[in-house]
């Protein structure tokens, strides 16, 4: 008896988490989508999609490193849907064993984990299978290199009216089914940061006068003294020609041993730590402009090594918008939708003017990459709240 749910090698690095089913009426589907089309993974609302590369975990950023990447080669062009965070997509998935219509829906949940949905039918290579038909939902964990166990995948798939709710809050609901496949609705709203009030602390000076012989200034009181701090932004990362510097030392310098330990303790208590790239007289944006293929991987490796939860892009030197967008795109590809990406413009930049420090048009940047930016940290100190300020901050 053939119990293959997909041909071997479709997803070689995977762990199936058996879904908990909850009955939900079809009327619970999102209303922002038009009727689905048939065949493959046809999506009626293109705005709900993003490039496929954003749903494929890169080998360089998986922790531990991926040994076998996701193989999408058996699917026809356009038959795999990578669903954008904060959207609801209604689509029809053709049966996985039908070469003409096989479809796959993917949702990137984190740096290492992707949620996948496929339609299972007793046709083609599975014509003699006794496994239940329906929409199969499973997680692909790229940090666990193992081949899929067909017997483990013999979980009850979703039927019309069923909803799978992932621990991240992402939901998959089956609206309808026929002999050719399943019509599903995927809601990824839970992946978008919706908190509207945040207390953010910038942490940069860890020693009095920046001398290792002087007393250590821990960030922990931000957590233990009832300050209400929701996020910590660690400054300042400098991407220099010769390598990465955190303020005045390399990140792995003994100077920072207590800093990384205390920040990890804060993360364990639910306070995300965001690294700040750039700032006043910081070379990062120039080096990224000059040699992106060298400098960005250095930033990526720093994020992985020290488990940063996000990056704040503080652009205070003239920089082409394409460089900033390239960094945003690369961060999203490497770390997924829940990784925090923020920017720190001055008032003029947020008021529709060209930012005097970066020369960026933030209106254009937001139009181009707004879905990938979590929030803006507005600089209002030292006169930067004034739209007329034109000199450097002091």
What tags apply to this protein structure?
single chain; 394 residues; alpha/beta; TIM Barrel; 6-stranded antiparallel sheet; 7 helices; disordered N terminus; disordered C terminus
3D structure, described in words:
There is one protein chain. By secondary structure, the protein is an alpha/beta fold. It folds into two domains: 21-191, no CATH class; 200-383, TIM Barrel (Alpha-Beta Barrel), CATH 3.20.20. Helix content is 16%, strand content 23%. The protein contains seven helices and 17 strands. The strands form three sheets. Strands 11, 12, 13, 14, 15, 16 and 17 form a seven-stranded mixed beta sheet that branches. Strands 1-8-9-10-4-2 form a six-stranded antiparallel beta sheet, with no helix packed on it. Strands 3-5-6-7 form a four-stranded mixed beta sheet, with no helix packed on it. Helix 3 crosses helix 4 (292-306). 41% of the residues are buried.
